[in-house]
Amino acid sequence: MSTEVDVVIVGAGAAGLAAAIELQSTNLKFLVLEARNRIGGRVCTDEETFTRAKVDLGASWIHYYGPENVLYDYYVSFNCGKKQPRHSGYRICFDYDGEYFSSETKFHARSICAKLYQHIELFTCKNKNKEDQSIEQVIQTEYERLVPNGPIKRLVNLMLSGEEEYEGSNFENLSAKYYGLEDGSSCDKWVSCGYENLLKFIVKKHNLSIQLNTFVTHINTIDSDRIAIKTSNDSSIIYCRRVIITIPLGCLKRETILFEPPLPDWKRNAINQMGMGLMNKLIVQFSTSFWDSDMCSFLHACNKQRGRFRHTICSHAPENILILFVTGNFARELEALTDSEILEEIMKFLRQIFPTQSISEPVKYKFTRWGQDTLAYGSYSNIAVHASPDTMKQLAKETSDGHVHWAGEHANANDGTENWSFGCVHSAFQSGQRAAKTVRSQLCSS
């Protein structure tokens, strides 16, 4: 038994949903196949674990928020902006022992960081046609020359690790040549209603039909006019004229789908070149808040490892939740530990920076492990050493003579507009729209 459709969309994350919405304006018959038992992919909202709280385990913010963002109208329509924000108030910066940094230390640290980033920008300008290097390689000599030991060094490391947190990778893995590719101010909107709920609203608004629990294992394009797709839970074959693949870059790197014939070398090279960052959330809920109720978040300068427990968001009572963001190498180290071992590290950290507080064990906790998630293998893409904007173009480029299309936050090729971005939920949405429009022009041309 087999199924015949015009288009198969693999994945029901933001890219897959956008592609489906775009195809609704046609007479094409299409299927959306999703391996998970829910939509959203790396957009996932937990509404069950924590008392009185919706907690996003993946994406949390709409980056570049504003009327030009493809998700803006949905957000406004869903009344997200009228819901109670999770956190508001001031942000504090702690040294490793919970002490505050002096104004003089802050001044010197900012000055040093400015010089280091200027050094990266100078490298970027002078080496456009030369071999790439990692940010770590580029700044190492200047860092050693400019940064003294002590509190200034710890604060400089904290400031530098902000870039590593945003990219989900350490400087040793990030391209210096394409540093600041998305240069420009970004207004970020915390999705207080739960990001997955926003995507569910979009699905309901457009009455999309999604086939869940359907893991695509094989895509055969030997006959590119009749692509054959196999799934793990069905012996039947789905045939289609076009396929839009929206699975995460981490899964493409792990080759979770077998392509016959194999993907061309240029596509495989692009998949291997592009960086895949890791950001995990360690969410702990307490019976009461031991932190200042007016504090919305705090930053921490570690004396052992740059970026270790650097950023924590505080949720007011009655939720009494702390969300610790961990990224890159440190996140991978923690993924290798058990939950109880991770919790022990968290409690040591909290008791160190709040030494005067009596901190009891949390009543509930949950730790994400996106690097071990077999339907993600990471959090979001970045420009790794030797990757480039051309890498994203190759990731977005069709294969099989234009019959196989590619979308996702990693495959949103630069269109030259001010609204372009990559690595974000709305970037994935844009890429899904683009891929579906191309399919529509191919199959619906008069």
UniProtKB/TrEMBL annotation:
PANTHER family: FLAVIN MONOAMINE OXIDASE, LYSINE-SPECIFIC HISTONE DEMETHYLASE 2. SUPFAM superfamilies: FAD-linked reductases, C-terminal domain, FAD/NAD(P)-binding domain. This is Amine oxidase domain-containing protein. One of its GO terms (molecular function) is oxidoreductase activity. Residues 15-439 form the Amine oxidase domain.
